[in-house]
Amino acid sequence: MNRLPILFAASLAASPALAFASPNHAVEAEEARIPFIGFNTIRTFHPVSDEIVYLQDQRRNWYRATLAGPCYNIQGALRLGVDTRFGTMLDNTSSFIVDGRSCRIHSLVRSDPPPPRRSRRNRR
Fold first, then answer.
1. What's this model's pTM, rounded to 2 decimal places?
2. What's the Rg (C-alpha) of the chain?
3. Which helix (H) or strand (E) holds 52?
4. Could you state, in order of their start, the residue ranges of all structural domains in the chain?
């Protein structure tokens, strides 16, 4: 008599949230806000693609901003403008301004530091 299917079904019944979870379902991080956005609030920014930018605040916390679409020229930008529209919080309703163009932020979450940049010698 094989008890493996019975034990598996019993473990799923004990935790109904696991029974409906998809194996590819990633846990979504909570949306973040950076308060009092101003001249010295953002310490540095690090674009890793046309759609992902890492930001570091003055407290050295890292945030990952996912943009609503590609923001061309952001990888070569020396400065990054911020449009918060109706407040002083940088969040998922804000936009970056790059070369006079608005790039809307789709998601802003706390994160680990950005991945290290590859050196030019290793790019082949």
1. 0.70
2. 20
3. strand 52-57
4. 42-115
Q: Exposure string (b/e) for 93-114, b if CB count within 10 Å is 16 or more?
A: bbbbebeeeebebebbeeeeeb
> pLDDT 10s per residue in the chain (124 long)?
444 334 333 333 443 444 444 343 334 679 999 988 776 889 999 999 999 999 999 999 999 999 999 999 999 999 999 998 888 899 999 999 999 999 999 999 999 999 887 766 655 5
> Which residue pairs, CB below 8 angstroms and at least 24 apart, start in 45-53?
45/80, 46/114, 47/74, 47/75, 47/77, 48/114, 48/115, 49/75, 50/74, 50/75, 53/80, 53/96
Specify the pairing of strand 62-67 against strand 52-57: antiparallel
Q: What 3-state DSSP class applies to 61?
A: coil
Dist CA 12 CA 45 (whole Å): 44
Which of helix, strand or coil describes residue 100?
Answer: coil
Distance CA(55)–CA(111), nearest Å, equals 9
Q: Which amino acid would we find at residue 70? A: P
